[in-house]
């Protein structure tokens, strides 16, 4: 470094290295924050199985790449999935179920904090989910490939029993997938939009 560059070049290289180190530190800070929030979410999700309350969902962005067991292999989605690989520690496995339907779709979501942090452009196939009043709950699905729309029937029942009108399809995130009693078990956080 001392013998192969000018004084100004050396300062420029040191400045570049400083920016690289600061970016790495920022990413580690984001990861640490994500891990802390994820642990809190896992504890809350498991303790909330089958319970319901009323909340507004946080805003986020998402895209869909699978309906039931059929993947959407369009080049546009393949490229988007490759770009989102770098966001994997921060993204969540997202699902949505149309109102009154038995089918479901899967994709990935990112909270607005990360959308702003990473400068993600919100344009199709990326969609924005606004905050709205929802029935909030959690459920689990035991056994590989056993996820169905029926897992959330209790949320619709809660709406009816408490005078709420369902006004949209359910959506949510896979909190985690673990092995329990020798079976793959998924824990899910779910939201069902309603009006009063």
Helix fraction, binned, reads 25-40%
E-strand count: 10
Q: Element order, helices and strands? A: HEEEHEEHEEHEEE
Q: What is the fold named in CATH at topology level?
A: Multidrug-efflux Transporter 1 Regulator Bmrr, Chain A
- The CATH first-level class comes to Alpha Beta
Largest sheet: 10 strands, antiparallel
Which homologous superfamily in CATH is the superfamily? Regulatory factor, effector binding domain
CATH architecture: Alpha-Beta Barrel
Descriptive report:
The protein is an alpha+beta fold and 196 residues long. The chain has a single domain (48-195), classed as Multidrug-efflux Transporter 1 Regulator Bmrr, Chain A (Alpha-Beta Barrel), CATH 3.20.80. It contains 4 helices and 10 strands; from the N terminus they run αβββαββαββαβββ. The chain has helices at residues 7-47, 75-84, 112-118, 153-161; strands at residues 52-56, 60-67, 70-71, 92-97, 105-111, 127-129, 133-142, 165-166, 170-180, 183-195. Strands 1, 2, 3, 4, 5, 6, 7, 8, 9 and 10 form a 10-stranded antiparallel sheet that branches. Strand 2 and strand 3 (70-71) form a beta hairpin.
Task: Produce the secondary structure layout.
Elements: H1 7-47, E1 52-56, E2 60-67, E3 70-71, H2 75-84, E4 92-97, E5 105-111, H3 112-118, E6 127-129, E7 133-142, H4 153-161, E8 165-166, E9 170-180, E10 183-195
Antiparallel strand pairs: 1-7, 2-3, 2-5, 2-6, 4-5, 4-9, 7-10, 8-10, 9-10
Task: Please tag this protein with its features.
alpha+beta; ten-stranded antiparallel sheet; elongated; 196 residues; 4 helices; 10 strands; 34% strand; Multidrug-efflux Transporter 1 Regulator Bmrr, Chain A
């Amino acid at each position: 470094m001392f013998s192969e560059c000018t004084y100004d070049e050396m300062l420029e290289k040191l400045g570049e290295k400083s920016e690289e180190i600061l970016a790495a530190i920022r990413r580690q800070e984001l990861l640490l924050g994500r891990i802390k929030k994820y642990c809190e979410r896992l504890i809350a999700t498991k303790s909330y199985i089958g319970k319901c309350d009323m909340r507004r969902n946080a805003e986020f962005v998402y895209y869909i790449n699978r309906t039931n067991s059929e993947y959407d292999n369009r080049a546009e989605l393949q490229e988007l999935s490759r770009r989102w690989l770098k966001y994997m520690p921060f993204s969540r496995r997202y699902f949505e179920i149309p109102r009154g339907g038995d089918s479901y779709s899967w994709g990935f979501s990112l909270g607005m904090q990360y959308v702003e942090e990473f400068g993600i452009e919100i344009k199709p196939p990326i969609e924005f989910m606004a905050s709205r009043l929802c029935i909030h709950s959690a459920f689990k699905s035991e056994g590989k490939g056993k996820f169905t729309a029926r897992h959330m029937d209790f949320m619709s029942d809660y709406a009816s029993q408490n005078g709420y009108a369902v006004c949209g399809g359910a959506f949510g995130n896979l909190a985690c997938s673990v092995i329990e009693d020798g079976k793959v078990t998924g824990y899910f956080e779910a939201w069902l939009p309603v009006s009063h």
